[in-house]
Each structure stands twice: as structure tokens, then as C-alpha cells.
From TrEMBL:
It comes from Deinococcus sonorensis. Keywords: Molybdenum, Oxidoreductase. It comes from the Bacteria. It holds the Pfam family Ald_Xan_dh_C. This is Xanthine dehydrogenase family protein molybdopterin-binding subunit. Residues 1-17 are annotated as: Disordered. Residues 30-145 form the Aldehyde oxidase/xanthine dehydrogenase a/b hammerhead domain. The keyword Ribonucleoprotein does not apply.
Length: 796
């Protein structure tokens, strides 16, 4: 941890809080990870998709005879085949009042609605044969006018994407008190306005999506191996809504998954197709996306057009916030799509500030583009970007330091629990120490002097950008999300199974696809049971093994899955103590575990090891009267509230006024995710998130033309952040435990992404203030920045 100021806990903890190397890395680094595409079954066939080249078209006749004549082609499937078999529409898992839910067939039927929508599927002996045969299908696609931008889809006379959604409106949603907000605006000294676009992103996990289905006629049972962040949600949606089969007839396995960033939460058409084809052809069927397919089929992220107004007093006090957002949802509603621009966005607009009133309106809009759903941070980066941008703009207009305006408005530590005007009740927080620490780490006073000197001489344009972010994660109390429209519970499961040899197997509903749970969850077990980490196996990603669980998204695994594990371990430990007490002929309350051994308090000799207890639990030869044999416990943990991590990120950039190139010079991230289980993993999460957030601010952009064609469909046009774009990130921590979960932990998996886009954007605009530029939409490509500087110079 070269640049970290993390101090390991001074308590006698052996595993928690330690930067233990990731136990999963040897297999990933030596190529022995086991991903969906690595799995091959006897007699396996391959699916290849004929995808629409048009964003909107009517499907006429489909002539598959030439494709079917190719040796090795076993079938060509169309939307009609699925409809005839009664295969259901792909559902959404979140409902809002008056939500329009147009049908979403896995293979399009009647019309295609985005470039990439599936028109037909070839199933063949090899992938090459299937892909070649796709080109031989003759489809009469009659192009229709299309629309790709949210605001254009709302314009009078716009093309209608679905007849079920007149005017392309999927929903209109609002939060906060409009009248109270208007009243506070009327009292304010001034109003700062900002119109901004939060552009669309492609998730780009390293492993493209893949699915392999097997059908066993004997038991009428399916197995699906798929790249999923939450196999139980996949099983529930596929069984109950799409295939109409009992859930226990479908086993979903998500083995090693090479990153998801949210894009592998959802139920995708290809999963339905391979399951359907496997039953029809009585052979296993596999599909693996190519990178070019991923660009047009993985659910995309963000895509907001917003107008915001911030009411202020002249001393910088915030009086109210008004927001109007158009959220482009793409062509269909996917699993979490309605929740992302509403409950995961509107509720976060309060940030860390004391707002007397907020009112936000969001219009969800259908367009002829790839569907939009959760992408790392999901709604919260959009809220943070808007809020932190307008706060920095307000500071510039008021002539206040960007850190000072924030400090003056922070909710104070003695004000928790804090009810915001946008529904959430923050359980804890202490924002100033994080700001102060970050200011110290970045060497703020000296930096501002250097900035002023550079501007004065015209030699250097430095920008310093703040983001004092907050996020709500650890999704979260089932009762609350149920009231908000989720068709899902938000608890998590854990089973702790102690073997006769004292080895421990944990079955968790959380899913690790890069976050290192096999290490951090094993640290929790080793600490609690006082056993070596090598004796612990963490099993996840298989509905055939684990009890029901809701999976990994919304940075919920440590706070919810980890807490379920801690509670299950508590039950195991209580039973183990009772068994040990029986063996030691003592009362359970007189027995303690020291250095792994159970001993009578004050008697160091003659204890029972964890192995002795585990073995005796199974042999049960000499067992407490009435106690069940075995040592296995389960806990379903449903938290009382979300958790609210926060922090201060400061980005320092230098803008080359001659070329428009933005260079990241320094980045300080002070995060508070409560007590840290593994600082190396937590900091790795922060590093990755910051790279992604920087990517959005400076490099990445999903560009559609007016006809809905994706113009940035390869890495030649879609620039991802690379090592050379980054700097050595300086990471710091403050520790404010969550008061309501047994570990006190808060999520860290999305913090970097949520915070960094705003910090980098504020830094770039801060540098551009030297030219009289007060806002510029991302991404800050050299051309865009250069043009903005040229235009500003001309108009001066
Ligand atoms: N952790 C810790 N101490 C804490 C909090 C967390 O040591 N106080 C550890 C956890 O034990 C876990 C990791 O940090 O190993 C992340 O924990 P958490 O914040 O609970 O997030 P999740 O494990 O639920 O991961 C989800 C989150 C999300 S929502 C996205 S999107 C994302 C992310 O994690 N996608 C990722 N990080 C990713 N990292 C990789 N490599 N790949 C992805 O697809």
C-alpha cells in the first residue's frame, strides 16, 4: 500500500483489517480460472445471432432455407417459434406507478427496436458454422424512422418506439416537496443554474457474456451456466416469468465471472434462447458474445439530460435544489431499469448537505438504442455528478473556495440519524474529517498558489476538482425497497458448514466477480472461529448449492452478505461453545475461545481445539442432552437501513491550452466505508472505480447517430482508460462505522466511480475558468476542450 495512510487496527484481530493477498488470484493469474466459455459439454451445439442492423424496422418474411441447407446447421429459430411455444417476455423486476412495460421478446417479433436486437438464431455443430449460416438467412427488414436521444423522443411528432408507451414515456416520477422547494427558492439570495448531459457508457467487462444450457429430459430439468452476478435472480425470472417452469427444475451456475460492473445483473435474451434451444434440440447449446456483440447488447449506463437549479444565500448556504431529468432507457425496460434513474438517483440528490427542500422530476423515455440499466454506481454517479458540479459552479459564482462552500453546508455529526428531503434517513456520517484529510494529502494551499501563478503567467492551466460524495448502498431493507416498487427482497443468506475435520465451507448468496470475496469472507470466518484462513472455502454462484440469495450489486456484499455470514458464525460459535463446555464439563458461560482453543476461563491447560469440537459435533458419541448433531448454521440477514459511505475526492488536472489535452496530475481519495475488512482489496476497488470515473469524464462516450446507429462500437472509437492515463492514486480513510450492521461495514465497491467523475469534471472546469468557461459537458476530449478554449478566446 505505497501511498496509503491506512493503519491496521491495533486490536488483537488476526485477520480483519489486514491486507491479506487475494486467495483467488493465483488461479486468475495462472490462467486456471474457470469461466462459462471454458465449460464444454458432450454433444454441445452453438448459437449465433442474426442481429438487426437497423435501429427500428418491421420484420417481414424470414427465409432460412439457405442457412438450413448448410451441413452442421441444426435449426434456425425466430420470434414466432418462441411465441408458438408460449415463451414469455423478458420481465422487469421493478415497478413504478403507471409504468409502461412493452413486451420484450428474446427474439424480436414483428419489429426490431435497436441495432443488435435479435431477429433470428442459428444453432449449429460449431460456432463457425453457426456464424457463417447467419449470413445466409434472408430477412425482409423494412427500415422505420428511429430516435436515439431522450429529449428528441419526447419532442412533438417523434417516432413512437412502442405503441404501449404513447409519446415514448415509460414513466414520470418525482420526489421531494415541490411547494416547499418553491418557497425556499423565493427566500434565497440567488439561484445558480446548470444544464448538463451525463452521457451514455458501455460497461466493457473483461469477460464478454456467455451462456451454456443443458436439458435433461429424464427429470425435465435444465442447467444454465451463465455470466451472472446473481444466479438466483436469473433463476427466478427465467423460471417464473419466461419459461413458466418450477424454479427447482432450473439450476443456474455462474462460475468465475470476469467482471460485471452491473451489466451482468440482468436477464438477457441469449439466456432464454439457449435454454429454449437446448430443450428443443435435446443437446446442450452454448453462446459466447464477441466484443463487437457486447458493444450492442450489454445493457448500457447513464444517459441523462438534466436541468438543475440551486438556490443559495450569499454566504453559500444552500436553500433548495430543483432538478428535471430526462432518462434515456433505450429500447426495452430491463431488470432494474425503472429503479436506476428514480430511487437510486433522486434519493441521492441531497448528498452530504443540509438542504431544507429538494424537488426532482424524472421522465423515463424509450428510444431505439441498447437498453440502459445499472452500470457501476447506477443512479448515484448521475446524482453525484449533477450535485457536485452545481455546487462547484455555485462556489465559482459566489467567489467562495470550492472546499469552503461544501464545509459550510455539511450535515454535522450530531445531526444523525438525518432525514433528507428525498426520503433517505442517513444513519451516520462525519464529513469534515474526510475533507480535511484530503486537503492535507493534496497539499491544497500550495496547489492553489501554483494554480494562480500558472494562470497569471499563462504557462500552466491547473484545475482542482472536489467531490464530497455520499452513496447509499448495501441494498437493503426488504420492507423499504418493497414499498419503493422492487419485486425483490434485499436480504442475504449465509450457511456455515463445519466439516468433521474442522474445515469450514461457507455458502453465500453474494457473488464475487472481481471483488475478492473468497478472501474477505474467509477473513471474517477465520477471525470469528479463530481458525486458519486455509481451512475456509467460500462457495458462491450456484443455485444448486446455496440457499436463496439476492446476489451482488449496489455494493451490498460486505454489509449484507458479510453480516449474514457474521450472524451465522455467531450461531456456530454458540453451539461450538456449548459442545466444548459439555466436553470440558463446565457451564457454557464459563468457556472462552483463546488462540483457537476452547478453555475454561482462567484455566489455560486442557482445552479443546476447534477440530475436537467439530469432530465431536459429528460423531455425537458424547453429546449434550437434546442437542442436534452436526455443526451447520444458516442466517438470512435483512438490514434495518442502507449504509451510507462517504468521502472527499480531489482531482488535479492540467489542461494544455494549445491542444486541449487534459492530463490527470494527482488524485486523492479519502473514503469512509466503516471498519475495513481488507485494506488492499478495498483500495483496489477504489482504484478501479476511479479509473472508470475518469474514463467517463475524459475518454469514454457512446455515440449514436440520429438513426440509432452506434458510431462508437469498437475500442478504436470508444476509448477506455489505460495505465498511462492514470496516476498513483493517494488513498486515505476515515472510519465511521454503520451503527446497524454487526460488522459496522459500509460498501466500497462503487465509491470510486460515484465520486471520481464529478471530481475530474470539476477539475477540468476549474482549469477552464481561466478562459471564462463555467461549464462544459463531458467527455473532455482534446478536440472538445480545444474548441471551447478557442470559442471563449474569440468571444473575449
Ligand atoms: N470490503 C472491505 N471492507 C469494507 C467494505 C468492503 O474489505 N468496509 C471488501 C468486501 O469484502 C469486498 C469488496 O471490498 O471484497 C467490495 O465490497 P462491497 O463494497 O460490499 O461491494 P460488493 O462486493 O457487493 O461488490 C459490488 C460492487 C459493485 S455494485 C460493482 S458494479 C462492482 C464492484 O463492486 N463491480 C466490480 N467492484 C468490482 N470490481 C471488479 N473487479 N469487477 C467488477 O465487476
Amino acid at each position: 500500500l505505497p501511498d496509503s495512510n491506512y493503519k491496521e487496527p491495533t486490536s488483537p484481530q488476526k485477520f480483519m483489517g489486514k491486507a491479506i493477498k487475494r486467495v483467488e488470484d493465483p488461479r486468475f493469474l495462472t490462467g486456471t480460472g474457470h469461466y462459462t466459455d471454458d465449460i464444454n459439454l458432450h454433444g454441445q451445439l452453438h448459437a449465433a445471432m442474426l442481429r438487426s442492423p437497423y435501429a427500428h424496422a418491421k420484420i417481414g418474411a424470414i427465409d432460412a432455407s439457405a442457412a438450413l441447407a448448410v451441413k452442421g446447421v441444426r435449426a434456425v429459430l425466430t420470434g414466432q417459434d418462441l411465441a408458438d411455444a408460449g415463451v414469455g417476455s423478458i420481465p422487469t423486476g421493478w415497478l413504478l406507478p403507471d409504468l409502461k412495460v412493452p413486451p420484450h421478446p428474446a427474439i424480436a417479433h414483428g419489429e426490431v427496436n435497436y441495432v443488435g436486437d435479435i431477429v433470428a438464431v442459428v444453432i449449429a455443430d460449431t460456432r463457425a458454422i453457426a456464424e457463417d449460416a447467419v449470413a445466409l438467412i434472408d430477412v425482409d427488414l423494412q427500415p422505420l424512422p428511429a430516435v436515439s436521444l431522450g429529449s428528441q423522443a419526447l419532442a412533438d411528432g417523434a417516432v413512437e418506439v412502442h405503441p404501449e408507451a404513447p409519446g415514448n414515456v415509460a414513466f414520470q416520477w418525482q420526489i421531494g416537496d415541490k411547494d416547499a422547494t418553491d418557497a425556499h427558492f423565493a427566500q434565497a439570495d440567488r439561484v445558480v443554474t446548470l444544464k448538463l448531459r451525463n452521457h451514455r457508457l458501455v460497461p466493457n467487462a473483461i469477460e464478454p457474456r456467455a451462456s451454456l444450457a443443458q436439458y435433461q429430459a429424464a427429470g425435465d430439468e435444465y442447467t444454465l451456466w451463465t455470466t451472472s452476478q446473481n444466479p438466483h435472480i436469473h433463476r427466478l425470472l427465467l423460471a417464473a416469468f419466461v419459461l413458466g417452469i418450477p424454479e427447482n427444475k432450473l439450476r443456474v451456475i455462474s462460475p468465475d465471472v470476469g467482471g460485471g460492473f452491473g451489466s451482468k445483473i440482468f436477464q438477457y435474451p441469449e439466456e432464454v434462447i439457449v435454454l429454449f434451444a437446448a430443450k428443443r434440440l435435446k443437446r446442450p447449446v452454448k453462446w459466447s458474445a464477441r466484443r463487437s456483440e457486447a458493444f450492442v447488447t450489454d445493457m448500457q449506463g447513464r444517459d441523462h439530460e438534466s436541468e438543475a437549479e440551486l438556490a443559495l444565500m450569499n454566504d453559500g448556504r444552500m436553500m433548495g435544489l430543483r432538478v428535471k431529468t430526462i432518462a434515456n432507457l433505450g429500447a426495452y425496460l430491463t431488470t432494474f431499469a425503472p429503479a436506476v434513474p428514480t430511487y437510486l438517483y433522486g434519493t441521492l440528490l441531497n448528498g452530504v448537505y443540509k438542504f431544507p427542500a429538494i424537488h426532482a422530476e424524472v421522465t423515463g423515455v424509450f428510444t431505439n438504442t441498447v437498453p440502459v440499466d445499472a452500470y457501476r454506481g447506477a443512479g448515484r454517479p448521475e446524482a453525484t455528478y449533477l450535485l457536485e458540479r452545481i455546487v462547484s459552479k455555485a462556489a465559482a459564482e459566489l467567489g467562495l473556495d470550492a472546499s469552503e462552500i461544501r464545509r459550510r453546508n455539511f450535515i454535522q455529526p450530531d445531526e444523525f440519524p438525518y432525514q433528507t428531503p428525498v426520503a433517505l434517513v442517513y444513519d451516520s456520517g462525519n464529513y469534515e474529517p474526510a475533507l480535511d484529510k484530503a486537503l492535507g494529502m493534496v497539499n491544497y494551499t500550495q496547489l492553489r498558489q501554483e494554480q494562480a501563478e500558472g494562470r497569471r503567467t499563462g504557462q500552466k492551466y491547473i484545475g482542482i476538482g472536489f467531490s464530497t460524495y455520499l452513496e447509499a448502498c448495501g441494498l437493503a431493507p426488504s420492507a423499504l425497497v418493497g414499498q419503493l416498487g422492487a419485486q425483490a427482497g434485499q436480504w442475504e443468506s449465509a450457511v456455515v458448514r463445519v466439516m468433521p475435520t474442522g474445515k469450514v465451507e461457507v455458502l453465500t448468496g453474494s457473488h464475487s466477480h472481481g471483488q475478492g470475496h473468497e478472501t474477505t469472507f474467509a477473513q471474517i470466518v477465520a477471525e470469528e472461529l479463530q481458525i486458519p484462513m486455509e481451512d475456509v472455502s467460500i462457495i458462491h454462484g450456484d443455485t444448486g448449492k446455496m440457499p436463496f440469495g439476492w446476489g451482488t450489486y449496489g455494493s451490498r456484499s460486505a454489509a449484507v452478505g458479510g453480516s449474514a455470514l457474521k450472524m451465522a458464525l455467531g450461531k456456530v460459535k454458540a453451539k461450538a461453545t456449548k459442545i466444548a463446555a459439555h466436553l470440558l464439563e463446565a457451564a457454557p458461560e464459563d468457556v472462552e475461545q483463546v488462540d483457537g482453543s476452547f478453555r475454561v476461563k482462567g484455566v489455560p491447560e486442557g482445552g479443546k481445539s476447534f477440530f475436537d469440537v467439530a469432530l465431536m459435533a459429528h460423531l455425537a458419541h458424547n453429546f449434550p442432552e437434546g442437542m442436534e448433531p452436526g455443526l451447520e448454521e444458516q442466517y438470512m440477514y435483512d438490514p434495518k437501513n442502507f449504509v451510507y459511505p462517504f468521502g472527499t475526492h480531489i482531482a488535479v488536472v492540467e489542461v494544455d491550452a494549445d491542444t486541449g489535452k487534459v492530463k490527470l496530475r494527482q488524485y486523492v481519495a479519502v473514503d469512509d466505508c466503516g471498519p475495513i475488512i481488507n485494506p488492499m482489496i478495498a483500495e483496489g476497488q477504489v482504484h478501479g472505480g476511479i479509473a472508470q470515473g475518469y474514463g467517463q469524464a475524459v475518454l469514454e462516450e457512446t455515440v449514436y447517430d440520429e438513426d440509432g446507429n452506434l458510431l462508437s462500437g469498437t475500442f478504436m472509437e470508444y476509448a477506455m482508460p489505460r495505465a498511462e492515463d492514470m496516476v498513483q492514486i493517494q488513498v486515505g480513510h476515515t472510519v465511521t462505522p454503520s451503527p446497524h450492521n454487526p460488522l459496522g461495514v459500509k460498501g466500497i465497491g462503487e465509491a470510486g466511480t460515484i465520486s471520481s467523475t464529478a471530481a475530474v469534471a470539476n477539475a477540468v472546469v476549474d482549469a477552464l475558468e481561466a478562459f471564462g468557461i463555467h461549464h462544459l459537458d463531458m467527455p473532455y476530449t482534446p478536440e472538445k476542450v480545444w474548441r471551447a478554449i478557442q470559442d471563449a478566446r474569440k468571444s473575449q
